[in-house]
TrEMBL record:
UniProt xrefs under CDD domains: Amicyanin, CuRO_1_2dMco_1, CuRO_D2_2dMcoN_like
UniProt cross-references to PANTHER family, sorted A to Z: FI03373P-RELATED, MULTI-COPPER OXIDASE
InterPro entries recorded: Amicyanin (IPR035668), Cu-oxidase-like_N (IPR011707), Cu-oxidase_C (IPR011706), Cu-oxidase_fam (IPR045087), Cupredoxin (IPR008972), EfeO_Cupredoxin (IPR028096)
Keywords noted in UniProt: Copper, Metal-binding, Oxidoreductase, Signal
UniProt biased composition (Polar residues): 127-140
Name of the featured protein: Multicopper oxidase domain-containing protein
Pfam family, any one: Cupredoxin_1
Chain intervals for the UniProt region annotation (Disordered): 127-158
Domain Plastocyanin-like: 185-298, 321-427
Keyword presence, Transferase: no
The EfeO-type cupredoxin-like domain, residue ranges: 14-122
Amino acid sequence: MQRRFRLFSSLIILILLCVTAGCQSQTAATEDKAVSHTVHSGSVHIDITGSAFSTDVVYVTKGTKVTWENKDEVAHTVTSKSGAFDSKDLQTGKTFSYTFKKNGTYSYYCIYHPDMVGKVVVTDQKQMSMDDPSSMNTSSNDKENAAPLGTGTSGEPKQADSLRLLPYKMENGYKVFHLTAEPVWWQVKPGKKVKAWAFNGSVPGPEIKVNQGDKVKIIVKNNLSEGTTVHWHGLDVPFDQDGSGGISQPDIKPGQTWTYTFTVKSPPGSYMYHSHPMNDMLKQEDMGLFGPFIVEPKGTGWKQVHPGYQDEYTLMVNDSSQFGYTINGLSYPATPVLPAKLGDKILVHLINIGMMDHPMHLHGMHFQEINQDGYPLPAPITMDTINTAPGTTYDLSFTADQIGKWLFHCHITQHVTDSNGMMSGMVTMFNVKK
Ligand SMILES: [Cu+2]
């Protein structure tokens, strides 16, 4: 009897699954009908940047010359899966061209980064419609690209560490910032797009940079489907501005806004903000609702107060189940390559927003830990590996005294290797040039 019931329930689940799958493919087909693609002739240029090809799929006529240019700091290859062409190692600034003489679909990838994929479709047609069954296999990619991928939504300029700086307006002596919590698609690395809940469309949320002594007003809009708040982690704020849902304030309901007002009293250093609702805190942080909060010295920047700091970078390490092991929401090779000139003094704001310890190790150079949780250490400690703990922030200082591409990565091997054994996850590098 029990066995028959199990068989019966399996059958019901199977039917339900089939029905759901059927619905999904129908929706995709309806959306695809509206999409058509220009077919290029003559020559086409594809950039390689951020460990991705600038165009996933390109449609060309016979005789078209396609040129790829590597604008990344690391070498890539443009390798055809069928063996039709192979650029071999394409160093920074180098190009590779191939003229397509036969109709067909040419898939290609980078041998060092198998997630980097692209396609050239060679056709006689002037316009490719997605109704054409020969091009249907590319539709899911195009559809996902059309989704609002997390790129920052309030005009935040992107910085070298790939974080976005949150702009502000001065109003009655207050620096006024706007944050919106909203669902977005986030690209962790080429080929890995996941759903995220983000501030202003990016994971981490935009970097808030203020000076010690500033009066700030931060207006938070909740465009999520559930209540949220924002907690100013490590900053000294009055109790009613603490942002702990159900303790210092009610959750901000969906569609509502809340204004936080405080004076920045904490010393110059690294802090952060993250959602802190009454319920679902684990889910909200896991989905990406956090960002860095950097306090700069009063009146001027670090560069003036500590003469010699030419470069200032913020790195947030995370191990969320949604994104995997990331630095600034990205997994190697999509993580930023941090530029420096030989002799530069570099300040790194290092923040662990994950659930695990991450011993971050620097190749080639030693750094000094100068602050922890924003406060200066009595004496800086020189090291090359710092074990970062969940919820803790660190300020590191070092001089770029050797030319090279120096890795900075978590030293737990599982956090920097994917299931195929490829380097992935919590890896970034400082590119020190003359
Ligand atoms: Cu780690």
